[in-house]
Amino acid sequence: MNLWLPIGILALATIFGLYWRSQQGKLKAPSRTSKSISEISNEELSKIIRSKSSFMVNADLADKRQMQLGKNVTLLQFSSAFCSPCKATAQIISHLVEGMDDVVYIQVASEENLKLVEKFDIKSTPTVIFFNRNGIEVGRAVGIPTKEQVIISINAVRTPSDDVGL
Asked: How would you label 107-144 residue by residue, b for 16+ Cβ within 10 Å and e otherwise?
């Protein structure tokens, strides 16, 4: 009789773990107060560009004024320096967007950009925020996404409708 309690707890923990794992890396609808990429000031953008732990793919770093955030699909990833899932996410996304001319991928070092972390309400890393052509947040993914999830999410953001089918 005393054996059923630990078995029940173990079963519930397993079910919760499987559910949590299935939700990691999926594109989720933004909160009601969705953010705009235009909320990043020129000073904050300069700090991201100068940071050793931040990088951009498919963006012209020589002249930040030429980089049109929000005119293309923009992926903004918040990462931590010693975060293995962040490195895996960065590797997956950077390889996928190399051939996509209409996608700008920016990795932001969370420790160095605390104002942005607060502004975009980042709770954990890695978090990837997807912005449409108008610079409006249309979704975010928390955790390590698969290649398929990233491709599906980018294609959903590319669609001109406001609803990305979430």
From this structure: bbbbebbeebbeebebeebbbbbbbbbebbbbbbbbbb
